[in-house]
Amino acid sequence: MTRVLMVFDLPYAVKPGYDFAEEFADPDGSYTENDVYQALLECGYDVHRLSLFDDVRPLLDAVRDVNPDVIFNLCDTFHDVTHWDKNILATMELLGIPCTGASSSALFLCNDKALSKKILRFHRVRTPRFHTFYRGHKVWLPKTLKLPCIIKPLTEEASRGISQASIVDDEASFVARVEMIHERMSLDAIAEEYIDGRELYVSIIGDRALRMLPAREMTFGQMAEDEPRIATYKAKWDDTYRKRWGIKNHFAKTLEPELQKRIADICKRAYRALNLRSYARFDLRVTAAGQIYVVEPNVNPCIAKDDELAQSALKAGINYPSLIRKVVNQALRRKG
Ligand SMILES: Nc1ncnc2c1ncn2[C@@H]1O[C@H](COP(=O)(O)OP(=O)(O)O)[C@@H](O)[C@H]1O
Ligand SMILES: [Mg+2]
Question: What are phi and psi of 48, to 5 degrees?
Fold first, then answer.
């Protein structure tokens, strides 16, 4: 029987043999882990679970004790640091066990919102024009950028640090927002030209043969037309706020076949350019004129049953356990 070690992060350490009952039952807690765990069991694997917080030794111990055929990697952070997910994955790679999802080098490239865009632009994939502001240097409005801009942390996820105030229309608020990210969040910042348009989420699965899954879209209901319609932290995660404004995530309607084809071509080109594998999700903006911008490539995006990728897979006829089995098989075929 294939032995799967499922590794994920928790914001605290637990003792060996911990049962995760509380975390896995909590709809705001380890719900992705719970979904994947149930699916792995349903697929008939011999599943072992390991959570990591701020110490890598439990990983070494578990690999020695369990001797897994494959690691199902669900680590998003290490010691609460978002971009240390790549360091944990790199450690798994050193142990020679095949891991699901992206490689540590893809995590490294895509966690940095500027670095991934530099590569995409080289491959002629359209992305918003941008400028990076590292901490400890002077902040100014570069002549190369046209206002309005959106100011974001360079290396964050899940819209942390993104609100309506992230959209800036003059130099003073531009500088103030960059400084807020430097000082209050202790992170480097990226300023991007604001792209007005539809917000699409396009998932791709595959290693050699790539498959684009049906596109999802966030729509902004009653939000005033002159308000920036973006996926802020609240728009993604605050149910009361979403209800108040009629913000919804659903399958993208009325995508002309020609546009759909261009989207697939662009996302596949981006996937290859960044040397992605297994599964990924692209956050796109599509303008009224039909220009497609890649705003963000997400490697190892959320794979919970209710999230975009699994919903898109289901629509394409791949039910949740099949999706999880596919991801495990991709890793097993790679052998390290
Ligand atoms: N250049 C941009 N133009 C328009 N909207 C943007 C731009 N960059 C980000 N956004 C909006 O902010 C959201 C979050 O930005 P993103 O770069 O995807 O960060 P995160 O990693 O936090 O998801 C996007 O889904 C989009 O709605
Ligand atoms: Mg995003």
Answer: -120, 145
Looking only at Cα atoms, what is the longest distance across the chain?
61
Question: What type of residue is 216?
Answer: R
Smallest Cα–Cα separation from 7: which of 91, 103, 74, 96? 74
**44-64, pLDDT tens digit by residue?**
999 999 999 999 999 999 999
> Comparing C-alpha atoms, which of 286, 247, 294, 291 is closest to residue 269?
294
CA of 162 to the centre of ligand 1 (A): 8
CB 268 within 8 A of CB 260: no
Instruction: Share the mean pLDDT of the chain.
Output: 95
Strands 130-133 and 189-193: antiparallel
Please check whether residue 254 is in contact with residue 313, taking contact to mean a CB–CB distance below 8 angstroms: no
Residue 335 scores a pLDDT above 70: no
Q: Give CA separation, 13 vs 61, 80, 159, 188, in Å.
A: 15, 12, 26, 28
Alpha-carbon dihedral of residues 75, 161, 271, 288, nearest 10 degrees?
150
pLDDT at 294 over 60: yes
Write out residues with Cβ below 6 Å of ligand 1. 113, 128, 150, 152, 156-159, 162, 192, 194-195, 199, 230-231, 283, 285, 295-296
Candidate from 126, 129, 132, 150 with most ligand 1 atoms within 8 A of CB, to mutate: 150
Q: How far is the CA of 302 from the centre of ligand 2 (A)?
A: 11
pLDDT (0 to 100) of residue 235: 86
**Separation of alpha carbons 49 and 71, rounded Å:** 10
The single-letter DSSP state of residue 78 is B
Neighbouring C-beta atoms of residue 238, cutoff 10 Å:
13
The secondary structure element, H or E, covering residue 74 is strand 70-74
Q: Give the residue from 252, 310, 318, 335 showing the smallest Cα distance to 36.
A: 310
Ligand (nearest to CA of 233): 1
Strand 248-251 vs strand 216-219: parallel, antiparallel, or unpaired? antiparallel
Note whether 9 and 51 are within 8 A (CB).
yes
